[in-house]
Automatic annotation (TrEMBL):
One of its GO terms (molecular function) is phosphorelay sensor kinase activity. This is histidine kinase. Coiled coil: none annotated. It is found in: Cell membrane. InterPro entries: Double_Cache_2, HATPase_C_sf, HATPase_dom, His_kinase_dom, HisK_dim/P_dom, HisK_dim/P_sf, sCache_2, Sig_transdc_His_kin-like_C. It is a multi-pass membrane protein. It catalyses: ATP + protein L-histidine = ADP + protein N-phospho-L-histidine. The lineage of its organism: Bacteria, Pseudomonadati, Campylobacterota, Epsilonproteobacteria, Campylobacterales. SUPFAM superfamilies: ATPase domain of HSP90 chaperone/DNA topoisomerase II/histidine kinase, Homodimeric domain of signal transducing histidine kinase. It comes from Arcobacter ellisii. Residues 409-631 form the Histidine kinase domain. Its EC number is 2.7.13.3. Keywords: Cell membrane, Kinase, Membrane, Phosphoprotein, Transferase, Transmembrane, Transmembrane helix.
Length: 633
């Protein structure tokens, strides 16, 4: 027979591994699903920031590259200017030397000078700005093709706009017979007296004891370098529609992908929405260094549609230039959408793989768990068989222990009926021998003998029923069950002056009656043993009633003083006893719990309780058995 708890345990063994595998696998799959979904969503969120940052870095790099190029040009401008004027002077010096060598033997120095003057005076370079001049050792201007009116005049004491006596430097070059660079501020031609920085180079011409030189205004040469820089910038193209634009701090376009913008003010071009605010704000950023700026460009170069643009601005304060480039939001959006689409495809494939692998894993784990369940179930049944054998042995030990007491009970219960039979039969024999046996005495004695014999027979039936191995559930009334129980043990209880107080409702139960009787006898005998330690007032109280949830409550308590608190939780353990080994085996209450919980599907508990009976206070152990009312199955 398997109890409901054992059946539940077998069901747990059979189904729990599979249920665990399914729930665990589903949990893992859902965890991976949501975890990766969150990861993909976060990644998709990061894509926009990533692309914006990436494109910001790209445009910043493009502008920085142009800025570095211009800075390098600026750095080399002065040196390049020096090289330029030096080369021109060397060329002029070579021409003068050639003329002198050609005519030195046939013409006078004055005639050779005039030939040299004519030859060098006709030289022009740097878009007509450059010319060759000549000065003598006294500071006289010998050649000045731009302004011939000053030829022949002495400038030895002349100072430039900043007080520098530049002609004394020329004289020193002649006297020292050397060459040198010079820097001064001279009046620019055709500028109404505007003064500008000029870099010159002088070289001594020994045959005529004079200096040949030339110079270039720095800003004019720098404009040439700026033009070179803008030509380089105009060639820069990157991405789908990337280009570099340049404005000066006055708002004039110097470079742009749309050529018609160049040379015009931003107000005229109207290429940017709200340009009257945007461009000045961009110029302010440039003046302060650099930064990003977002705005609407009215016409995107590739489609002529208004488009949001993010630009990086770099200021070049030496030239009062704003250098910038940008990227268009719709280009980024298309890349973002494409990347998100690829991520969605990747995620869909990932989910499919998870589902496929998860399904395969679930099937494999279910097969493994089923094998483990069958293995554990088999092991449990083997263990249960062994345990049942041990339980049967304990059960028989318990009954054998009870049998000794039962024999004593039989002896007590049979003593009086046997005495009655002996007395009646002896009286009949004696009166027969004396010849005085009357019919009345004979029938009376026969009746007593018959009554006593029936009592003996009933006692034998009660004990035989108790020890019967009957394992069938039956319907019985608890009042009759307790009557049978008390009949089996009453002799010893009466002999020890143990009073049993009963309050038993007549409740019908469907269960194993003999099992219940054995459990009750174990509890009552346990109380008896404790009550024998008392001198007087030995009581056992039995209460049986039905509660409002269709449960039978059987309460048995005594006034033997209770159970020690340190051992009260151990009394249902096997072989635990507070008695001497010669007095107890420790399996009585253990078997009682086994019977109640496993055979009768009930609950048994114990506690110490204080109560009042006949106006006297008592203290003892209280056992409570709860049994469910059950219909016949």
């Amino acid at each position: 027979m398997e109890t409901s708890k054992e059946k539940q345990f077998l069901k747990i063994i059979k189904f729990m591994p599979s249920i665990f595998v399914i729930f665990f696998s589903i949990f893992v799959i859902l965890f991976l699903y949501f975890e990766n979904k969150n990861t993909f969503n976060e990644e998709k969120k990061d894509i926009e920031e990533k692309y914006i940052l990436e494109n910001k870095e790209n445009i910043k790099e493009e502008v920085s590259r142009v800025y570095s190029f211009i800075k390098q040009l600026q750095k080399s401008t002065e040196q390049e200017l020096k090289n330029s004027v030096k080369n021109r002077v060397y060329e002029a010096h070579g021409i003068a030397t050639g003329i002198y060598e050609k005519y030195k033997d046939t013409k006078t120095n004055e005639e050779i000078f005039e030939l040299i003057k004519i030859a060098l005076g006709s030289l022009s370079f740097n878009d007509g700005r450059g010319y060759i001049f000549m000065d003598d050792v006294y500071g006289n201007k010998l050649l000045h093709p731009i302004d011939t009116s000053i030829e022949g005049k002495n400038f030895i004491d002349y100072t430039d706009a900043r007080g520098y006596k530049l002609f004394q430097s020329i004289v020193n070059v002649i006297k020292e017979k050397t060459e040198r660079f010079d820097e001064y501020y001279w009046y620019k031609p055709n500028t109404n007296g505007q003064v500008a920085r000029k870099i010159s180079f002088y070289k001594y011409f020994e045959p005529l004891n004079m200096a040949i030189g030339t110079g270039e205004y720095f800003e004019d040469f720098e404009k040439m370098i700026q033009k070179k820089a803008l030509e380089y910038i105009n060639m820069i193209k990157f991405g789908n529609s990337g280009y570099i634009f340049v404005l000066n701090y006055d708002g004039l376009y110097l470079s742009h992908i749309k050529k018609d913008y160049i040379g015009k003010n931003y107000i005229e071009n109207k290429g940017i929405e709200n340009s009257e605010n945007v461009i000045p704000e961009m110029i302010e950023i440039a003046k302060k260094g650099n930064g990003f700026y977002s705005y609407i460009q009215n016409e995107k170069p590739t489609n002529n549609l208004p488009t949001k643009k993010i630009s990086y601005i770099q200021g070049l304060n030496d030239w009062n230039w704003l250098i910038g480039t940008g990227f268009y939001e719709d280009d980024i959006n298309s890349k973002i959408l494409e990347t998100k689409r690829k991520l969605d495809e990747k995620y869909d494939n990932y989910i499919k793989n998870i589902l496929i692998i998860g399904s395969i894993l679930i099937v494999i784990l279910l097969l493994i768990s089923r094998y483990v369940s069958l293995f554990l179930e088999n092991k449990f049944r083997q263990y249960k068989k062994e345990l049942d054998k041990k339980q049967l042995i304990l059960h028989q030990q318990s009954k054998m222990a009870a049998m000794g007491e039962m024999i004593g009970n039989i002896a007590h219960q049979w003593r009086q009926p046997l005495s009655t039979i002996t007395t009646a039969s002896s009286g009949m024999v004696l009166q027969k021998e004396m010849g005085i046996l009357t019919d009345e005495f004979f029938f009376e004695a026969s009746k007593k003998i018959n009554t006593s014999a029936q009592y003996l027979s009933q006692t034998i039936d009660d004990f035989r029923n108790f020890f019967s191995p009957n394992r069938q559930k039956t319907k019985f009334f608890l009042r009759n069950t307790f009557s049978t129980t008390l009949d089996l043990i009453s002799a010893q209880f009466n002999a020890k002056e143990i009073h049993i107080i009963k309050n038993i409702e007549d409740i019908e139960l469907f269960s194993y009656e003999n099992e219940l009787i054995q459990a009750l006898i174990n509890i009552l005998n346990n109380s008896r043993d404790e009550l024998l330690k008392k001198e007087n007032d030995r009581y056992i109280f039995i209460d049986v009633y039905k509660n409002n949830i269709d449960e039978v409550n059987i309460i048995i308590k005594d006034n033997a003083g209770g159970i020690k608190e340190e051992v009260i939780n151990k009394i249902f353990e096997p072989y635990f006893t507070t008695k001497h080994q010669s007095q107890g085996t420790g399996i009585g209450l253990y078997m009682t719990e086994e019977i109640v919980t496993k055979h009768l599907n009930g609950i048994i508990s114990v506690k110490n309780k204080e109560f009042i009976f006949n106006d006297k206070k008592y203290f003892g152990a209280q056992f409570r058995i709860k049994l469910k009312l059950s219909e016949e199955e």
